[in-house]
Amino acid sequence: MVSFLASQLVGEKGEVIAFEPLPEAFKFLRSKCKTLKLTNFKIYNYALSDKNGVKKLKVNGSGSHFLLNSDTQQPFIVVKMVTFDSFPPTKNKKVDVAIINVEGAELEVLRGMRRVLSEHEVKIICEVHPIQLCYLGYSLKELEKLLEELGYKIFHISNMGLRKVTNLFRERAHYLFARRIPTSLKKWKK
Q1: Of 26, 123, 144, 170, which residue is the least packed, with the fewest Cβ within 10 Å?
Q2: Is residue 62 part of a domain?
Q3: Is residue 18 predicted with pLDDT exceeding 90?
């Protein structure tokens, strides 16, 4: 639903590109997009990752989902994966903001966006899931290292505002990753 809000915020001259790997959620969002007559909103039935291919996705009864290690015996669906950098509709696009909520696959998504993150000053709003990140074989340190390599600073988002931090927290949290704090948010920073 954040994507629909983004569609209103960017207006007619902007564009929102969304990715939803779950078939049911994708159909719902596509239908909602048509109902709302959003002309600046495009949605694709893929999971973003650091390579193109397929991967197992566990779907919980609560509606949350996360990628699985390939050797799991848990119930899953197979989803198509693409990198943001290689996906034809995103090539040569100027990206201002990326909203990432991928329940543990944050590092894979950001690796798959390396080109666009290097070429543009993208502000990234990201929910980081440390437990799922570790489950996939990654660490918070690897995520922090990638952000540092790309020149990004970490700002924790809370009801108190934005706070610059040097490390990601060990519990799930929301962050803004940016090369510098956006001018429009400076007054919100505490």
Answers
A1: 170
A2: yes
A3: yes
How buried is 184 (Cβ within 10 angstroms: 0-12 exposed, 13-18 middle, 19+ buried)? exposed
Which band of pLDDT confidence, cut at 50, 70 and 90, is reported for residue 85? very high
Does residue 171 sit within a domain?
Answer: yes
Residue 30 counted as domain residue: no
Task: Please say whether the beta carbons of 76 and 57 come within 8 A.
Answer: yes
Cβ proximity of 40 and 16 under 8 Å: yes
What region does 159 belong to: left with phi over 0, alpha with psi -120 to 50, or beta?
A: alpha
How does pLDDT run across 45-76, given as a tens digit for each residue? 999 999 999 988 877 655 555 655 556 566 78
Task: Quote the domain boundaries for residue 138.
Answer: 46-183
The pair of structure tokens assigned to 62 is 């609560």
With a pLDDT cut of 70, the percent of the chain lying above it is 86
Domain count of the chain?
Answer: 1
Put simply, whether the predicted model's pTM sits higher than 0.70 gets the answer yes
166 is a domain residue: yes
Mean pLDDT value across the chain: 87
